[in-house]
Design a protein that fits this description.
4 copies of one chain form a homotetramer. Chain A is of the alpha+beta class. Chain A is 27% helix and 28% strand. In chain A, the strands form 2 sheets. In chain A, strands 3-2-4-1-10-9-11 form a 7-stranded antiparallel β-sheet. The first copy, chain A, has a 6-stranded antiparallel β-sheet with strand order 5-6-7-8-12-13. In chain A, strand 12 and strand 13 form a beta hairpin. In chain A, helix 6 crosses helix 7. The longest helix of chain A is centred in the middle third of the chain and has 18 residues. Chain A is globular and about 55 Å long. The first copy, chain A, starts with a strand and ends in a 5-residue tail after the last strand.
């Protein structure tokens, strides 16, 4: 399995997001406490929106905790929309093209979880990808293929519906192969303006996912914590595991739901795969 | 493009094959003289038959010339059947799964060349791979896909016919997409007992390929060269570029032909893609 | 910290030593149970005696658990004397030259532990290395420097005395700098004929180290375990953590002692740094 | 040998400096035309001043031409002072800590060339490094050691004199060992405000080095080249090889000289190692 985090808010130095918190994602790469595996050392990636409309990605196959270049980059990049992911492979090769986040034009996508029986149904799933998009697939993971199924179903136009349809495709094809409960996922995706986060599993026993309490409420709770005192009103974090142990700061994303983060009002909606 | 070599003969230390010759494959990785590119620094691989029926592969994404582990391994492995390949990417990612030789059970496969317009026809080619084999594809190169097309057409039973059919598939699908002269290839494949080497291109302007003169004849020509004096009677090398400048030692594999190397009598046959 | 294992006995396929046991060193690289750290993912190395008088080393900076080439090599190498090490950096860079085992001519050396205050005393320690040997130092670790201090004091002629003197040098120089209890070490070294294993720390609270029970006694205890039934009479393993949970199979190397493993009679001696 | 470039001017996107020119440094990494070696594929590095007083470095051991992360970073970093280096090892290991530029607090340093007989005199040179600085040395190259000798002699206070003294130390110690003509170097160093570039070799046959013509003169020469039309008045490039073939745009740095680039007036001075 894996661990990820997504940030939305005022432009922030990546170092503050990635290295400073007590139980930062880098710390989780070495010893996750809530994940299916302790070490998430099979590569990592960060994605962010900065210069130009397309996001940048910096990904590598070594463990995040010992990557010197990641520390260098983190001290130089300021961004209002940031994704980070540490990977524990569930079978696919440890290669850069299999590291998250994945990018397609202005979209980013990252995933924690797995498609059960992926080896068996991979070909059928690939056939469901729009032939126009097919050639852009770079790696061999279930996670990236789920991204391309979502793109095929219109991620760019109607993100929630597209992911519901993509997951529906996986569940139907898995069922055809006699595979029960194929989907386990927490997913984040963005177009640079909004972030959509999904928590879902076929068996309704999904991996953990938390979102941060609104910034003004956090400031009331923790007026003396500098990073909170300085956080802008739109600041929002979504994480596989809380970055610090602060009562009232973290809220579980409910089972089978999707959150939409954007300027103004966020939303939390039910998530139902399309049958 | 790339450079490769294949060895058949008495068990030989890899170091003698890979590092000792004046213009060894390692030297060719830094400055090829007959290839389409000077440097072949986008990964390398070796494959050999040793313990067990399946060959081993050692592959990496860094340039062969500075890989310290390759030097270590080369001093420890003795093998009667050895493949080596240095890569210059024609577009596919520089990742271990894209390094040659590729392996499927007891088979090895390596390729120098490219399929023109591969990005356009990749999906159609993938659909022609036997669904049973499909899940074993690991990387994203044209070279590996050609291997799986050959496996689909019975490489294990009738290697020459299978490759003729696989190349025929590529040429027909390329023609359907209006792509002229899609295939450029020198290929070596083996099951651990024989080696088949192919030199072919749609335009009949194939990359260079040479095979060594029979060992007894070589000994007459060069009685004072130790490695030749010691070579067993079955010794045979096939190379993209000659390893030394020795008149009479190297013979061009003819355009559009396939060579079969095995214990006893070798063969040289015409190669005709199946229409 | 780190984990290591050393094997002495009949030529054995590395795969059987490195991957097959329940709690193999590869498993320990992901979740060590007795070590100071859970994950040992900052590089790994193996060293073995095979072709030629000098041992070979295969080392890499990625985690042992996801290195594909290590699996390939392990299935091809048979050796009567084998070292393996998984690293958790205590500060030195994660680079191949800092991976264990280290080699000097026919000698191998690997270490679990650390020299406290190394940054402060590194220069003084380097000055104590024989100038003739100085240029052969490749990396920047305390572990390799301890090796060169032992070589300086005659490791090749009188291994136990040389290590006692090298450790004495470290303790005296540390004391000069006001550093208490500088040495924490379990070390294995070999010349290809014998293995010396050391367990020592200035504070007499050394990392764990175990040696296997004699092969004939093990066969009486576990007649049904195939690998034990097939083990030759000289088989001996020394490990940071037991590879399986087998009562009677593993014996703690006593605090402040050195074991000598060789054909015929092994020895277990007290270890006293030279003052 | 190696190739490098240094940029001073208005904040510029790294991509424009590193990838866009016809014969960019990335192109030179694959086929240098004026260097001692064709391929410079033994690692690379970039250094730049951005957030905070200390420069950032991004360095890796693979060839610059196939590093995907380098392309990503280059599209996101804008900087007024930029160093880039592609390496062809002259013997030292291909490891990140041996990649240029080297950093010490706010200083950057990069080098093309070599110290002849370095293996023999390395220990004596190390002893000449200020013990306070000694522990900060990370790698094993002659280039980094020369940097620390310059720091020892006051690089931060009087850069030109410090490098003259450092080179003098190398020449004297080499002479003591009977090594003739030990120094071959083009060096760039910076504190974030000025850049000093040195061209020197003991034998007065130094590697090539060029600086760009002043921006206002360039605009007169090439009014139609966009990048020149847009260049600010302080724009200056120093390169191992010209990035484009533009008559009048590039000027050779004279043998045995040092150039100082800073806001306002640049300087070109003779360089004389201190005896």
């Amino acid at each position: 399995m894996c661990r990820w985090m997504a940030y939305y808010g005022d432009p922030m130095l990546v170092e503050h997001l990635l290295f400073r918190p007590t139980h930062s994602l880098i710390d989780q790469s070495l010893h996750s406490t809530m994940g299916a595996t302790t070490a998430n050392g099979d590569g990592f990636g960060i994605g962010w929106y900065g210069e130009g409309p397309e996001p940048a990605v910096f990904k590598n196959v070594d463990p995040a905790w010992h990557d010197q270049n990641l520390r260098e980059i983190a001290r130089q990049i300021r961004t209002p929309l940031f994704f980070a992911h540490v990977r524990a492979s569930t079978g696919s090769a440890v290669e850069r093209s299999n590291c998250h986040p994945f990018r397609w034009h202005q979209w980013l996508w990252m995933h924690n979880g797995a498609i059960t029986g992926f080896h068996q149904i991979k070909r059928d799933l690939l056939l469901r990808v729009d032939p126009v998009l097919f050639g852009d697939i770079e790696g061999s993971t279930d996670s990236e293929l789920l991204f391309y199924l979502a793109l095929t179903h219109g991620l760019a136009e109607q993100p929630v519906v597209a992911v519901e349809q993509a997951v529906g495709v996986v569940e139907r094809i898995a069922a055809d192969h006699g595979i029960a409960n194929p989907v386990q996922m927490t997913v984040a995706t963005s177009n640079g303006e909004s972030i959509w986060v999904f928590r879902y599993s076929s068996q309704h026993q999904s991996r953990t996912l938390f979102y941060s309490t609104a910034a003004d409420r956090l400031r009331e709770l923790y007026p003396d914590i500098e990073v909170i005192a300085n956080a802008g009103p739109e600041t929002r974090l979504v994480v596989s595991e809380p970055l610090r142990d602060l009562p009232g700061a973290w809220n579980e994303v409910p089972e089978s739901s999707v959150g939409v983060i954007r300027a103004g009002r966020d939303e939390l909606l039910p998530f139902r795969p399309a049958l």
